[in-house]
Amino acid sequence: QVQLVESGGGLVQAGGSLRLSCAATGSIFSVNGMGWYRQAPGKQRELVASMGSGGIINYVDSVKGRFTISRDNAKNTVYLQMNSLKPEDTAVYYCNARISPKSGRLENYWGQGTQVTVSA
After folding, report:
1. How far is CA 74 from CA 24, 65, 104, in A?
2. What is the 3-state secondary structure (H, E, C) of the chain?
3. For residue 52, how far is the Cα from the chain centroid?
4. Alpha-carbon gap, residue 118 to 112, rounded angstroms
5. How much is the pLDDT for 87?
6. Cβ(98)–Cβ(78) below 8 Å
7. How far apart are CA 120 and CA 112, in angstroms?
8. pLDDT tens digit string along 53-88?
9. Which of 13, 15, 32, 55 has its CA 20 to 30 A from that of 104?
10. How much of the chain, in percent, has pLDDT values that exceed 90?
11. Are 98 and 32 in contact (CB under 8 A)?
12. How many CB atoms lie within 10 A of CB 107?
């Protein structure tokens, strides 16, 4: 079956960098839009960055100029390069993708989440 596998989270100091990766695996016909959400304790989940199949990119205002989303279509993988990290970026980051499996209908998939912690 199709799943999203995330990696790259960790603990960094403020001002540091991390790169998150999310690979779509399984019997896939096509991967359409991919993106990253995050959720901190007691906070609503928010869209951080997204990239549509046509290359249209969207960022939440709080990360503009610091985060960069990119895709490697050959690997069905989306990345989130996070620079100049702030304590406010601390959250669980979730990958999301719109995927057409070879044997199924177009569906929305979520990764398992990866913890990002930024210390002051």
Report:
1. 11, 27, 21
2. CCEEEEECCEEEECCCCEEEEEEEECCEEEEEEEEEEEECCCCCCEEEEEECCCCCEEECHHHCCCEEEEEEHHHCEEEEEECCCCHHHCEEEEEEEEEEECCCCCEEEEECCEEEEEEC
3. 13
4. 20
5. 98
6. no
7. 26
8. 788 999 999 999 999 999 998 999 999 999 999 999
9. 55
10. 92
11. yes
12. 11
pLDDT in tens, 7-34: 999 999 999 999 999 999 999 999 999 9
pLDDT at res. 54: 81
What sign has the CA pseudo-torsion 50, 110, 12, 76?
A: negative
Q: Which amino acid is at 58?
A: N
Paired tokens of 25? 């695996």
Label residue 36 by pLDDT band (50, 70, 90): very high
CA distance 111 to 94: 6
* CA torsion through residues 43, 87, 11, 72, sign: positive
Could you tell me if 41 and 29 are in contact, meaning their C-beta atoms sit under 8 angstroms apart?
Answer: no
